[in-house]
Specification:
This protein has helices at residues 23-36, 48-51, 75-85, 102-109, 121-134; strands at 18-20, 63-64, 69-70, 92-96, 113-118, 140-144. The protein is of the alpha/beta class. The strands form 2 sheets. Strands 1-4-5-6 form a 4-stranded parallel sheet, covered by helices on one side. Strands 2-3 form a two-stranded antiparallel sheet. Helix 3 (75-85) packs across helix 4. The protein is globular and about 35 Å long.
């Protein structure tokens, strides 16, 4: 996002259309992902390539987060959610608990300006690298923040 663009503020959210994946949604998606997961090595998984970082950090499915565990949303479900929301390039997307960034990156690939908010700083850095590799780092940004703290989300 350009430097002149102000940070997202929870107080301003009603002023524009936002698609947000809140904790409750993330948990339901986690159960869906777990139910559809097939036992396989990380390298055999179609989503593993998107999640792997060049510096060696690879998140573990089910790793502890703050009050939740991390389970990646299958790409087919990300696509379906964005289709159901009927997002357009004029929309903005904010993903709360963005994990490895796949929802934000997919939205940016569709032309949206999108921001991911994630508690785990390692996942934030991984998401930034994934966005860079996908060629959408100008439209997909990620912030390390604690959603349980009140106030505006930084930049």
């Amino acid at each position: 996002m350009p430097a002149s663009t102000p940070p997202f503020s929870f107080g301003r959210l009603p002023t524009f259309r936002v698609v947000a994946c809140a904790t409750a949604t993330a948990l339901s998606l986690a159960f869906a992902a777990a139910a559809t997961a097939q036992p396989a090595s990380k390298s055999a998984s179609p989503n593993a390539a998107q999640s792997e970082a060049k510096d060696g950090y690879v998140p573990d499915v089910g790793q502890d987060g703050k009050d939740v565990i991390w389970v990646p949303t299958p790409q087919s479900l990300v696509d379906k959610m964005l289709d159901m929301a009927k997002v357009t390039p004029e929309d903005r997307l904010m993903d709360l608990g963005s994990g490895d960034g796949r929802t934000v990156i997919t939205a940016a690939q569709r032309g949206l300006t999108a921001q991911g908010i994630e508690y785990n700083p390692d996942l934030v850095e991984l998401s930034r690298r994934n966005a860079q590799r996908a060629g959408v780092a100008d439209r997909a940004t990620f912030v390390a923040a604690d959603l349980f703290q009140t106030g505006s989300v930084p930049g």
